[in-house]
Design brief:
It is a single chain. The protein contains eleven helices and 17 strands. The chain is an alpha+beta fold and about 475 residues long. It folds into two domains: about 280 residues, Beta-lactamase, CATH 3.40.710; about 90 residues, D-Ala-D-Ala carboxypeptidase, C-terminal domain (Peptidoglycan synthesis regulatory factor (PBP3), Domain 2), CATH 2.60.410.10. A six-stranded mixed β-sheet has the order 14-16-17-12-11-15, with no helix packed on it. The longest helix has about 35 residues. It starts with a helix and ends in a 17-residue tail after the last helix.
Length: about 475
C-alpha cells in the first residue's frame, strides 16, 4: 500500500476513534433525591457537563424492555438510506411470531397490517413513540435482509463500539428474554450516543405523528401515533414541565422502564430508570417509572446548580523563586477552570483544596510554566487534579545567580572528585620521590667517590 494511502487510512481511523463517545462516567459526588426511588436502577446525567449527578445500582444487571428499540433506531438511522423515501411492505410471516409471544400484554401495536407500505421514517416514529412491535419487526427484517438475527448482530456490534460492555441484545423489539440484559449505565451510554445521531432526537421527542399516506389509506385515526411518555402530555396528571419523550417500556416479568430528556432554564438532563414496579402493595397498577422520573427531575431542577470552584484567574499561592530579578516570588493559578454540579443541601465548603508546590524553583520562570498541582477532594474522592502555572514570567538575576553557584561549586561532586584526585596524585608523587631517593642512596652506597690525597693533588703555582 502506498505510504500516502496508508497515512490517510490511519488518520481516518484515528478520527473515527476520537469521535466515539467516552463511557458514561461514574459519579464523583454522591447526591440523592430527598424522596425514595422505587426503580431498582437509575442514572441521571447532566448533558451540559457530561456528568452523572445521581445513580442507583447503575451496574446491576437488568432487562432493557422496549428501550432496546433505541438501539434498533440507531442501527437504522446509521444505515445510510434515505428514511423519507425508503419503503417497507409489511409481511404476515414477520408478525406471526409476535402472536405466539408468551406475555402478550408486553406488546404495543400501531395498527400496522400485512400489506401496509410505510416509509422507514414512518416506522421509526411508530416504534419510538408507541413501542410498536410491528414497526420494530419490520425494520429489523428489512435491514437484516429477512433475518432478524443478522440485524441483532448489528445491534450488538454497535453496543460494543459505543461502550456498552454489559449489554447483550437477542431481539430488536425488546421482548422478554433471560439472555437480553443490560445495565442502567449502559442504557445511559446508548441514550447519550443516540442523541448525537441525526434525526433521532426529533423523532424520539415528537409528541405525535401521522404518516403522509394515512389519509389515502383511510387510516388517519389508526395511524395518528402519540408518545407513550405521558409526562409530555399537558393534560396528564403526570405532566412534567420540560420533559421530552424518547422511550418507555414494560415487561410483566420484570417491570417498567423509561428513558427521557428534561430541559429547563438552559439546564439539560438525560434520565434512565429500569425495573420500576408495576403494582403497589395492594396489587393495583401504578406507574412508578413516571413517578420516579418526576421525583428525580424536579429534585435536579430545584436543588442542583452549577458552581465554579476554580477559574483561570484564581490566585492560588505565592511560590518562592531563587535568584530572581526584581522579585523573589511568583503567583500560581490553575491552568484550567473547574465547574461542577452541586446540591444545595450539601455544604460546598466541604470540598478540600490540596495544593502541591514544586520545591527549589529557580529563575528564570516562564509565564504558564507548571509549578505544582491542586487537587479538589470531597469525602475522599478526587473530583479534579489541575496543574498550577506561573501567572507571569520571572527573570534571573546575573549577580545573584553567579554568587549562588559559588557555595555550590565547593559542595559539588566535581570539586570533590578533583580534591580526591589531587590528593591521590600528591600521594603517588610523594611515594615516587621517596622510592627514587632510596634508590639513589643505595646506588651511592655501592659506588662511593674516591677521596683526594696529597699525592694526587696538583702542585700549586708559586705566589
Amino acid at each position: 500500500m502506498p505510504a500516502k494511502r496508508l497515512t490517510a487510512l490511519l488518520l481516518t481511523l484515528l478520527c473515527c476513534i476520537m469521535l466515539l463517545p467516552q463511557p458514561v462516567p461514574a459519579k464523583a459526588i454522591s447526591f440523592a433525591p430527598t424522596e425514595p426511588i422505587a426503580s431498582e436502577s437509575a442514572v441521571l446525567l447532566n448533558l451540559d457537563l457530561d456528568t452523572v449527578v445521581y445513580e442507583k445500582n447503575a451496574d446491576m444487571k437488568q432487562m432493557p424492555a422496549t428501550l432496546a428499540q433505541i438501539m434498533t433506531a440507531i442501527v437504522v438511522l446509521e444505515s445510510g438510506v434515505d428514511i423519507e423515501t425508503e419503503t417497507v411492505t409489511a409481511q404476515q410471516a414477520w408478525f406471526d411470531p409476535l402472536y405466539d409471544y408468551e406475555s402478550p400484554t408486553d406488546l404495543r401495536y400501531a395498527q400496522i397490517n400485512a400489506g401496509d407500505v410505510l416509509t422507514v421514517e414512518d416506522l421509526l416514529y411508530a416504534m419510538l413513540l408507541t413501542s410498536s412491535c410491528e414497526a420494530a419487526t419490520m425494520l429489523a427484517m428489512h435491514f437484516g435482509e429477512g433475518d432478524e438475527s443478522a440485524f441483532v448482530d448489528k445491534m450488538n456490534t454497535k453496543a460494543q463500539v459505543i461502550g456498552m460492555p454489559n449489554t447483550r441484545f437477542t431481539n430488536a423489539v425488546g421482548l422478554y428474554s433471560a439472555r437480553q440484559v443490560t445495565t442502567a449505565r449502559d442504557m445511559m451510554q446508548m441514550l447519550r450516543y443516540a442523541m448525537t445521531v441525526p434525526r433521532f432526537e426529533n423523532i424520539a421527542c415528537a409528541v405525535r405523528y401521522t404518516p403522509a399516506s394515512a389519509e389515502l389509506k383511510g387510516k388517519t385515526e389508526d395511524w395518528t401515533w402519540t408518545h407513550s411518555n405521558i409526562m409530555c402530555d399537558t393534560e396528564s396528571k403526570y405532566f412534567c414541565t420540560g420533559v421530552k419523550g424518547i422511550k418507555t417500556g414494560n415487561l410483566q416479568e420484570w417491570g417498567r422502564a423509561i428513558a427521557c430528556k428534561a430541559s429547563r432554564d438552559g439546564n439539560n438532563y438525560l434520565l434512565v430508570c429500569l425495573k420500576s414496579p408495576m403494582y403497589d402493595e395492594n396489587g393495583a397498577s401504578r406507574f412508578y417509572h413516571l413517578e420516579d422520573a418526576t421525583t428525580i427531575i424536579e429534585w435536579a431542577f430545584s436543588h442542583l446548580s452549577y458552581q465554579k470552584l476554580l477559574t483561570t484567574n484564581t490566585e492560588i499561592d505565592e511560590v518562592k523563586v531563587e535568584n530572581a530579578k526584581d522579585t523573589d516570588y511568583v503567583i500560581v493559578k490553575p491552568a484550567l477552570g473547574y465547574s461542577c454540579i452541586w446540591c444545595d443541601t450539601m455544604d460546598i465548603n466541604l470540598i478540600q483544596q490540596i495544593i502541591t508546590i514544586d520545591e527549589n524553583v529557580q529563575a528564570p520562570v516562564k509565564e504558564g510554566q507548571k509549578l505544582g498541582t491542586i487537587k479538589l477532594k470531597h469525602s475522599g474522592e478526587v473530583l479534579a487534579e489541575i496543574d498550577l502555572i506561573a501567572a507571569s514570567s520571572v527573570e534571573r538575576s546575573f549577580w545573584s545567580y553567579n554568587l549562588s553557584i559559588i557555595p555550590g561549586f565547593f559542595k559539588s561532586d566535581f570539586l570533590g572528585i578533583a580534591w580526591k584526585s589531587a590528593l591521590w596524585l600528591s600521594v603517588i608523587y610523594l611515594v615516587i620521590c621517596i622510592v627514587c631517593y632510596i634508590i639513589y642512596r643505595r646506588q651511592k652506597a655501592k659506588h662511593p667517590r674516591p677521596r683526594r690525597t696529597v699525592a694526587n693533588e696538583r702542585p700549586r703555582r708559586p705566589q
